[in-house]
Amino acid sequence: MIIEILLIALAIYLICGFVFAIAFVIKGVDKIDEGAHGSTIGFRIIIIPGAIAFWPLLLKKWLNANKENQHD
Fold first, then answer.
1. Where are the domains of the chain?
2. Which of the two residues, 35 and 57, has the higher pLDDT score?
3. Residue 37 phi/psi, 5° resolution?
4. Is pTM, for the whole model, over 0.85?
5. I need a labelling partner for 40 at 20 to 30 A (CA). Which of 2, 8, 15, 32 fits?
6. Which of 11-45 are b and which e, b meaning 16 or more Cβ less than 10 Å from the residue's Cβ?
7. How far apart are CA 18 and CA 23, in angstroms?
């Protein structure tokens, strides 16, 4: 029972991470990392697993970057 709950929670986390990663590699990576401007599709494909794993942290950085851009 506990293992099922943990696996369901992990699946939900990974699904959310996958959805986030698609949006992040298209738009978000340019907002939080100036070095990623004009990066190749290969680079963006390589960062997808990391974006899936660390999506809550990257989402926070992306939102903070948007807030900073609005204040400037």
1. 2-71
2. 57
3. -60, 125
4. no
5. 15
6. eeeeeebeebbeebbeebbbbbeeeeeeeeeeebe
7. 9
